[in-house]
Amino acid sequence: MTERPRTLSIAVAVAVIFGLLTIVSGGRALFGSADMGAVVPFVLWFNFLAGFAYVLAGIGLWRGAGWAPMLSLGIAVTTAAVFAAFLWHVGFGGAWEARTMGAMILRTGIWIAIAALVLRRKKA
């Protein structure tokens, strides 16, 4: 059995844990009774659904599936696109929460880092 690099194991753990937390928090915001303030619906729905992709990507990376690096890249690109749309929304005076800005910066950064790591590893 080939030993998995520590950085890949960390990336997998981050992807799966972050995905599960995203599903839970997004589900509470969408289907719970908690007042989340000035949520931006398209961002909330995207993040909730993306949580499932995070978990799938993490599992795929753990198993060494050939499609998992491209899924990671797809998550990074679509997250950056949704973040750009969110910034557009904010720029034109739409209501928003500061925690959404922080969350989108975090999500985009994490997935760019994961995608870069696994794509660089795939090339090697």
Description:
With 124 residues, the chain is an all-alpha fold. The chain has one domain. Helices cover 80% and strands 0% of the residues. The two termini are 19 Å apart.
Provide the fold topology.
Blueprint: H1 6-31, H2 41-63, H3 68-91, H4 98-123
Instruction: Please tally the β strands and state the result.
Output: 0
In what range is the share of β-strand residues? under 5%
Major sheet: none
Q: Percent of residues in helical segments?
A: over 70%
Specify the structural class.
Answer: mainly alpha
- Poorly predicted runs are none
Total number of distinct structural domains: 1
Can you write the helix and strand succession as a string?
Answer: HHHH
Entry summary:
Keywords: Membrane, Transmembrane, Transmembrane helix. The protein has 124 residues and is mainly α.
What are the main properties of this structure?
single chain, 124 residues, 80% helix
